[in-house]
Automatic annotation (TrEMBL), chain B:
Protein name: ABC transporter permease
Pfam families for this protein: BPD_transp_1, OppC_N
TM regions (residue ranges): 38-59, 97-116, 123-147, 236-261, 287-310
Membrane topology per record: Multi-pass membrane protein
Domain ABC transmembrane type-1: 118-309
UniProt keyword Ligase present: no
Family: Belongs to the binding-protein-dependent transport system permease family.
Stretches assigned to coiled coil: none
Keyword Cell membrane: yes
UniProt superkingdom: Archaea
UniProtKB/TrEMBL annotation, chain C:
Family: Belongs to the binding-protein-dependent transport system permease family.
Localisation per UniProt entry: Cell membrane
Transmembrane segments annotated in the record for this chain: 12-31, 103-124, 136-159, 189-211, 247-269, 298-319
Lineage: Archaea, Methanobacteriati, Methanobacteriota, Stenosarchaea group, Halobacteria
Species of origin: Halobaculum litoreum
Gene Ontology cellular component annotations, sorted alphabetically: plasma membrane
Major localization listed first in the record, in broad terms: membrane
InterPro entries reported in the protein's UniProt record: BPD_transp_1_N (IPR045621), MetI-like (IPR000515), MetI-like_sf (IPR035906)
Residues in ABC transmembrane type-1 domain copies: 99-312
Name of the protein in question: ABC transporter permease
Membrane topology term: Multi-pass membrane protein
Alphabetical keyword list: Cell membrane, Membrane, Transmembrane, Transmembrane helix, Transport
Transmembrane helix as UniProt keyword: yes
Length: 385, 320, 329
């Protein structure tokens, strides 16, 4: 069952000179209940912006240009005793609630979305290490979240729950009375995870959950997340540039480049049946332990600035396979299985199916073979095209 | 970039290449600066005051010796009793004389005094600001660079001692010792106002010292002096300019406060003395044209320094 | 509650004490370097050499300078501040009488300034760059640029001379028509202190605002502010509880700097309003070369600053749980 359905979401940052950064451009994806979904891409590709925009946490100059974020859950005052949207609210044309009870988060006001933050969607920020307030006890910060969304809870109950949560992520309950500076890096990360689970949200957004940690602790944190997912049944939206982490934990994922989804589908498909030049390049540039003597090949050039971009394919400047068509318009999502079996391009209709935004997926075999060749990715070759 | 280095060989090109980024940086800084309206306003005010100090004769309707009813020196006649009673005279525009901001009790034109006094305030502000930066910045640099050694400890204890001495009374003592001249007032202000610069620069240096480029300079065997002046000072200078501006503002006010207490160089024209005169001659509440202009001028000059300082702080703040 | 170790406190007290000793020595030298001796005012032209010698003897001026210095330092250890030639009274009594008056004026402006300043700084820093921030910030800089005696005059002009609402000088009504009771005394003092406090706070709050504004602006980018928002807290709670609470920490450090600014301000304001406090006599005693009084007033103000610094440390540990004074030394 779908928990979150993002449709054609475009996010922009206004710039003083009147132009705008198209941080995310007509992005669509969906997350099922209990599933781990990944957004992967280089830094600056718009994945963090996308995640923050779901709960209106963009910087001041960022705004949602268009699109919907349908979420299976609604404001407390619009819900019946089961937590579903009331029929009267669904029928009310002024309220952004759909037939199936999903609410359009993009259409909520800031005041409204505040009631849904943390209660329905918790977010572990990129700098989780600095996310604990240094002047308050860690336990009190968890209690604050509980009391905000469940005002009927007593303080003592909330404190008990905070201790219990800390224990669940492997921190001694008594440490609730400590301050953040008394915690190690890994412990801070766990404490933030515990805090995220305080109100048993349906969706947990983890922004680069492991980037600042060393490898051993990375692994433990990932295990922790998986354990919590089993316990609470929470869906997790992971954002990372580290495709090896993503391969490990995600059920499905989307590969983003320059504010666009380049390829999406099940994790096995994306890594096993890679169908996009960008994903091919990304795979090349990451080491795998199993093939120790593999040469790493990076994609030449730098990501585009996204400031009022032209309509062509976002990746074409760095793509060794770019053709005339790529300059005219960014390709739509094509159904990969279809292209492979029929050899013809057909726009994907099912968001879940393996899709790729490339005009040349009808020649996939050729692309994959060429991509393995180091020469393909040298700067001169791309520039001389 | 390796590719860019290969293609220009001439000397002119290399000079241009060396200076271009700096000019570019200056230009960008200027653009950032002009984004702040108060920064621009501050500059405009300062330019006006600078012109007043350099060529007061162009702006002032009279000289400072001009006396109402009689005119410019040489003074040959005396004021009648009736004329004396009409002083200080409110603004007059030609009848019986021309003094747009009125006169003081001696019959001097307020506007002319105001314009001729700009030089004094400007001189004291800039000199005292510069001097206290010259004391505070190097001491802060040294203190920060040798953080947690006896050198740092000694400088910091000295700062503590200076903080224990109330600024204005201490200034009075200093000025009294050396005699009341403009130069001594400037020295007195500098001696008492370098503390904040020193503390801020020290803090900044302490954090700069931990940066990797300083570490690598150390590893490369650079001497302490080289590290301080070559690597740390360029990064500290921008905030020093901010402090220079603030100290200048503080000095202008301090000089006026001294004048209020009767400690001013009465041979020079200054706004502080104009205000001292209105107090000692007892016209504070009777001659607004005499009370307001010098105070406003002091305020505007100090404010222009603050405006410039705070706008510059924003330009030099690497975080924004 | 605080995390200052006894050892650290003891060390700080010793250092503060030594600082005071150095300040006193410095003062002794400086005051005596001023032209004119403090008995100049007592000597009239008709005096015989013998009479002058007697005066010199009475005030201990015939002893060598080092002896005078030693006497001075030793006397101060026992609280013996000497006699004032101009006020013709024990300096200690003068201090006891005047210190509370200064503290009332100074303390209330300090407290008001440190409530208003950080509060305004909080709002301006939170909305830095907005039109409101720009206009309020530039206005406050204008206030900060006013000479304190001039703004005092303007206040007197408006509230005393024109409106006749508030008295412009002294601490008490000179020839009261009412009975002196505790209540009327309080009311009378409040009535007289209103204008001095207004003049002083009018410019005095800006100092702490100037520290609060940029630090507040910096913490808005911190991870915990983002997380507080993500938790669904209202903007107000995020600003006050999470951002401002952290931004206050550097303001505590800056308190000492603002203190110096306020002392200057109150020296001037006391002189303008004839407020019979320390600020008034510190100026007159220096100008009249009344060394015992000058030394004592400087000493008391130095003690005030030193005590405030100690207090700041305590407040600091309370504001920032990361700071532990005295551990790891």
């Amino acid at each position: 069952m779908t928990l979150l359905e993002v449709n054609d979401l475009s996010i922009r940052y206004a710039i003083d000179d009147g132009s705008a950064v198209h941080a995310s451009d007509r992005v669509s994806f969906s997350v099922d209940r209990g599933e781990t979904y990944g957004l992967v891409g280089e830094s600056g590709c718009g994945k963090t912006t996308l995640a923050k925009s779901l709960v209106h946490l963009l910087d001041d100059n960022g705004y949602i240009e268009s699109g919907n974020v349908w979420f299976d859950g609604t404001l407390p005052q619009w819900a019946d005793e089961n937590g579903d949207a009331k029929q009267s609210v669904i029928d009310d044309p002024d309220k952004p609630v759909r037939e199936d009870g999903k609410t359009d988060l993009a259409a909520l006001t800031n005041k409204q979305i505040r009631d849904m933050r943390w209660r329905d969607i918790a977010i572990i920020p990129q700098s989780a290490m600095n996310a604990l307030n240094p002047v308050y006890k860690v336990g009190d910060q968890i209690v604050e979240a509980i009391l905000r969304h469940e005002p009927q809870t007593t303080k003592a109950e909330a404190h008990d729950r905070a201790r219990d949560l800390l224990e669940r992520v492997g921190i001694e309950p008594d440490r609730a009375d400590d301050y953040a500076h008394q915690f190690s890096g890994g412990m801070k990360q766990r404490a933030v995870i515990a805090m995220a689970m305080a109100c048993s949200p349906d969706l947990l957004i983890a922004d680069e959950p492991t980037t600042a940690l060393d490898v051993i602790i990375q692994d433990r944190i990932l295990e922790e997340l998986e354990k919590l997912q089993d316990e609470f049944g929470v869906s997790i939206l992971v954002i990372s540039h580290d495709i090896s982490v993503m391969a490990e934990i995600c059920d499905r994922m989307a590969v983003m480049y320059g504010g666009k989804v380049m390829e999406s589908g099940r994790t096995e498909d994306i890594f096993g049946e890679t169908a996009n030049p960008y994903t091919l390049g990304l795979k090349n540039s990451f080491p795998t332990i199993t093939s120790a003597d593999q040469d790493l090949v990076s994609i030449p050039g730098t990501p585009p600035t996204l400031r009022d971009p032209d309509p062509g394919c976002r990746f074409r400047e760095r793509c060794p396979f770019a053709i005339e068509e790529c300059h005219a318009e960014h390709p739509p999502m094509y159904d990969v299985a279809d292209a492979e079996s029929t050899g013809r391009l057909r726009e994907a209709t099912d968001q879940r199916a393996h899709g790729s935004a490339c005009y040349r997926i009808d020649e996939l075999e050729q692309l994959r073979t060429d991509a393995l060749n180091e020469d393909t990715w040298t700067e001169q070759r791309i520039e001389s095209r | 970039m390796a590719t860019q280095q290969g293609d220009s060989g001439t000397d002119g090109g290399s000079v241009r290449r060396r200076w271009e980024p700096r000019i570019e940086r200056l230009k960008r800084g200027w653009d950032r600066y002009t984004e702040h309206r108060i920064g621009v306003v501050g500059l405009v005010i300062l330019v006006v005051f600078t012109l007043w100090s350099i060529i007061p004769g162009v702006f002032a309707p009279h000289s400072t010796e001009w006396i109402a009813y009689i005119g410019e020196p040489p003074i040959e006649s005396r004021l009648t009793a009736e004329q004396v009673r009409s002083l200080p005279h409110p603004p007059a525009f030609g009848d019986p004389f021309f003094a747009p901001l009125g006169t003081n009790a001696n019959g001097n034109g307020i506007l002319s005094l105001l314009i001729y006094s700009a030089k004094n305030a400007m001189y004291i502000g800039l000199a005292a600001g510069l001097l206290s930066s010259l004391v505070g910045v190097p001491l802060g640099l040294i203190s920060g660079f040798y953080g947690d050694t006896w050198i740092d400890e000694a400088i910091q204890r000295f700062v503590d001692i200076m903080y224990g001495l109330p600024f204005l009374p201490f200034l009075i003592v200093l000025v009294a010792i050396r005699g009341i001249t403009t130069t001594n007032i400037i020295i007195g202000i500098a001696v008492t106002s370098w503390l904040n610069n020193c503390i801020t620069v020290r803090g900044e240096t302490l954090s700069l010292k931990e940066r990797s480029y300083v570490e690598s300079a150390k590893v490369a065997g650079a001497s302490d002096t080289r590290i301080i002046f070559r690597h740390i000072m360029p990064n500290v200078l921008p905030i020093s300019f901010v402090f220079l501006a603030q100290d200048a503002a503080g000095a202008v006010i301090a000089q006026a406060s001294l004048a209020y207490l009767g400690l001013a160089d009465f041979t020079a024209n200054s706004w502080g003395i104009m205000l001292e005169n209105i107090k000692s001659q007892g016209y504070i509440f009777d001659a607004w044209w005499w009370l307001l202009p010098p105070g406003l001028a002091l305020m505007l000059m100090a404010a222009s320094f603050y405006f410039i300082g705070f706008s510059m702080e924003d330009v030099t703040n690497p975080q924004r | 509650m605080t995390r200052i170790s006894g050892k650290y406190l003891a060390k700080r007290i010793v250092v503060s004490y030594l600082t005071l000793l150095v300040i006193m020595s410095l003062l002794f030298v400086l005051l005596r370097s001023m032209p004119g001796s403090f008995i100049t005012s007592m000597i009239s032209s008709g005096m015989t050499a013998e009479q002058i010698a007697r005066i010199r003897e009475t005030w201990g001026l015939n002893e060598p300078l080092w002896r005078q210095y030693l006497n001075f330092m030793i006397n101060y250890q026992t609280g013996n501040f000497g006699r004032s030639p101009t006020y013709n009274t024990q300096v200690w009594d003068l201090m006891i009488r005047r210190m509370p008056r200064t503290l009332v004026l100074f303390g209330s402006t300090f407290i008001i300034g440190f409530i208003v300043g950080p509060l305004v700084g909080m709002y301006l820093g939170w909305w830095r760059g907005s039109r409101k921030d720009k206009s309020i910030f530039s206005t406050s800089l204008l206030l900060y640029s006013m000479p304190s005696f001039w703004i005092s005059w303007l206040f007197i002009w408006v509230f005393n001379y024109e409106l006749d609402l508030l008295p412009s000088a002294y601490m008490f009504t000179q020839f009261p028509e009412f009975q002196w009771t505790a209540f009327t005394v309080m009311r009378d003092v409040l009535y007289h202190i209103a204008l001095p406090i207004m003049s002083l706070t009018f410019i005095g709050w800006v100092g702490s605002m100037l520290i609060m504004r940029p630090t507040m602006n910096q913490v808005t980018d911190e991870g915990y502010v983002f997380l507080a928002r993500a938790k669904g807290l209202s903007e107000r709670t995020v600003m006050v509880k999470h951002a401002a609470r952290n931004a206050l920490i550097p303001v505590a450090t800056g308190a000492v700097v603002s203190l110096a600014f306020l002392i200057d301000g109150s020296v001037i304001v006391e002189n303008v309003f004839n407020w019979p406090g320390m600020g008034q006599i510190i100026v007159s005693s220096v100008l009249n070369r009344d060394f015992p009084v000058a030394q004592a007033t400087f000493f008391m103000l130095a003690v005030l600053v030193v005590v405030m610094r100690l207090l700041t440390d305590v407040i600091y540990t309370y504001l920032d749980p990361r700071i532990k004074f005295g551990e790891g030394e």
